[in-house]
């Protein structure tokens, strides 16, 4: 067996099985108080990937809503934090993902099928390749979800589901469409679930992003006018920085709820919002557009939102976190 080590256990979350199990159970229990318990048909999730001290509550909400009644396989889409690549998506080379709670099997059969996918253009270039073991073990966007997948997946009729980790970096519209086409046959089967790993706005001079929104009710048509680079300790209309960041993120959540991949792309272009999983979210939005054919309902249902720190000036930094699901 080729097992991906839980490289962030003991730092980003506990490496002790009893401690981690208790922490996950507590986070799920807190989420259960909201009433979104095992939402029927919730087989697409989005949640953050920071240390559990920061993002655990949001992960608890997302995985508490997860309907595990049919799941056999989970496609995990996440952004690459340490290496840049383009014209392809990368798949895990491992057979299992280690967690302190138990190992999660990687679906090698599905990965081998995806490796056969070729661009319709670009002279038969592969859409997917295997990432190196080093890239996989350095990356945290999948690992932070893994203990929750294991804990909640044990309840599934088929047991802990197999996972298909898909790492995305540089992505043009052609690659996005190829990824959607490759995944479309799978979303039609309710045994296949999808989890998007993404934090939201990374704000502050440390991240090279200090834009503030001056109008809570801005639209895509007015966004460029209402967005300003911060020079002072508050927005030009005296809005606290952290509140302006939330307005910016809430706009992103609202656009995702509408389900338009074109509007999502336009929002990212104009705002430059540093949502690390913006490309995996774009893929799932286009995939859902194709699957649902615009049935008039909200696509994403959002459960919670928070920030790591209430930023008050450009010297401060914060990362935003959101949790949600799609009911199919």
Structure description:
InterPro entries: MEMO1_fam. Pfam families: Memo. This is AmmeMemoRadiSam system protein B. Belongs to the MEMO1 family. The chain is of the alpha/beta class and 328 residues long. Helices cover 35% and strands 20% of the residues. Strands 2, 3, 4, 7, 8, 9, 10, 13 and 14 form a 9-stranded mixed beta sheet that branches. The chain has a 3-stranded mixed beta sheet with strand order 1-5-6. The chain is globular.
Question: What is the straight-line distance between the termini?
Answer: 35 Å
Structural class: alpha/beta
What is the count of β-strands? 14
Topology as H/E string? EHEHEEEEHEHHEHEEEHEHHHEE
CATH topology: Protocatechuate 4,5-dioxygenase, Chain B
Reading off the top of the CATH hierarchy, the class is best stated as Alpha Beta
User: Quaternary status of these chains?
Assistant: single chain
- Overall number of domains: 1
The portion of residues forming beta strands comes to 15-25%
DSSP summary: helix tally:
10
Mean of pLDDT = 94
Radius of gyration: 19 Å
User: Strand count, sense and closure of the main sheet?
Assistant: 9 strands, mixed
Helix content: 25-40%
Shape: globular
Question: If classified by CATH, what would the architecture be?
Answer: 3-Layer(aba) Sandwich
Family: Belongs to the MEMO1 family.
InterPro entries: MEMO1_fam
Protein name: AmmeMemoRadiSam system protein B
